[in-house]
Amino acid sequence: MLWLFRFFSVWPLAALHVLGGWLGWLVWALSPRYRSQFRANALQAGLTFDVARPAIAEAGRFVAELPRLWLHPQTSSCLANVEVEGHALAVQAFARGQGVIFFGSHCGSFELAPQALAELYGPITAMYRPARKAWLARLESLSRGRPNLTMVPADRRGIRQMHNALKVNQAVGVLVDQVPPEGLGVWAPFFGKPAYTMTLAARLAIQNGAVLLPVSCQRLPAGRGYRLKIWPAVRTPESANDADADAALAAPKAHLLSLVTRINQAVEAIVLSQPGQYLWGYARYKAPRQEPFAAAAKPPEAPR
Asked: What global pTM score does this model have?
């Protein structure tokens, strides 16, 4: 499969997006389960099918652009066709000196976002879940490591590396709308329905005083490139008043749920700003799976 990725990696972005649009509609035509989940998730978000409909082709474009994003030369910049919005927000966040947590969702080009952030604000440590297929895991290991970008697995070692990065005022990256294994999340509302949501970003913010910055990376029409947007920070006890900080110490679990809910609300705002680029077919409301490493990977409780 590596040869196929190399073949498509040299295609123009516009051509890949045309091919990806066809691929998206092919998957739509062949999978009743996908169609059902797509419609149900969009409806849960209060959207009509016509509003969410462009996401069918965009899902295919996400797949088609991966060879180009993963295999472009490490010596070349990925920012040539990337517009950046909200740069001042990142500068202000780093000025606090306690690290920055960039978080995103399954919306737009979430594979490009870590590379772009690493060029702009690196070093950055980003978490990923290694692929289970050997050929794909090998491809990931060859492609995801970039200058100023360290990809770490979703385990105790990876979490420790993220803590260490924040302690020296570096950035970390997390895709927060992935459903974590049982024990690594809480049930929090997402578009009005309970969804099992990871607590990692919230715990990192609470324990390190880091700034939580939402990020989106929207595809521009006709293969013109991308728009990387940094959104206003999510409020934490350190950025709020003393009463909020006292409440966090008195009831850490309740506060954790509150912060996770605010993170979900930030994701909702991003999705509603570009509903045609969210992966509506993702099983966001599924029950968490059980994995043997879950207990070991669980971050420690927030300090009491």
From this structure: 0.89
